[in-house]
Write a structure and sequence with these properties.
Arc Repressor Mutant, subunit A, Tetracycline Repressor, domain 2, elongated, 194 residues
Length: 194
């Protein structure tokens, strides 16, 4: 099978993992339910991914890459030298479930994050590194307007805020508009150093 066909089949199966996770949670993502959703055999799922941990890890990386592509596209649209606040708003908005693409991604992130609390096999050094990378990108933007020693802490605080706001929107605790106002308030605080 050609490399393109292999990647297409892998994406088909990973999209099935996302579908199953979004509708039934990560506990519903068995090889059988994933194979049924993808319209392939269990053996084919195993062929492309080996074991469930590999399948889940690759799917999480696939969803992360999709959101990273979305952010990159939106940042490009800001022009050559965007204001740090615009950059931060764009990054943070990617984690608010304001459309179906982001809603599905947040549901996957939450499902994986929750499962990782009790299943050590889902906690990977790569997952921890990705969170630190996001905080690093945010800190870089904060340093464009601030130079104090709290920048790294505020960047991490902002990461935790956007994750919490995304959870709140999905749970119905806050509306998207309210979450955006709260995010705006958080950005005012971290950009001003208050």
């Amino acid at each position: 099978m050609s490399e393109d066909k292999t990647e297409e089949r892998r994406r088909q199966i990973m999209n099935a993992v996302v579908d199953v996770t979004v509708t039934g949670g990560l506990q519903a993502a068995t090889f059988r339910t994933i194979a049924e959703q993808a319209g392939v055999s269990v053996r084919l799922v195993q062929y492309y991914f080996g074991d469930k941990n590999q399948l889940l890890g690759d799917t999480l990386a696939y969803v992360r890459a999709d959101i990273a592509d979305l952010v990159a596209t939106e940042l490009t649209e800001l022009g050559d030298d965007p204001d740090p606040r615009q950059v931060l708003e764009t990054i943070c908005e990617a984690f608010l479930p304001v459309d179906e693409r982001r809603r599905r991604a947040m549901l996957v992130f939450i499902a994986f994050g929750t499962a990782a609390l009790t299943d050590g096999s889902l906690r990977s050094p790569d997952a921890l590194r990705r969170g630190r990378e996001l905080a690093g990108v945010i800190a870089e933007q904060l340093r464009r307007v601030r130079s104090d020693d709290r920048v790294d802490d505020d960047a991490l605080l902002l990461v935790m805020t956007i994750v919490g706001l995304g959870n709140g929107v999905l749970a119905g605790d806050v509306t998207v508009d309210h979450a955006r106002r709260l995010l705006d308030h958080a950005l005012d605080r971290v950009l001003g150093g208050a």
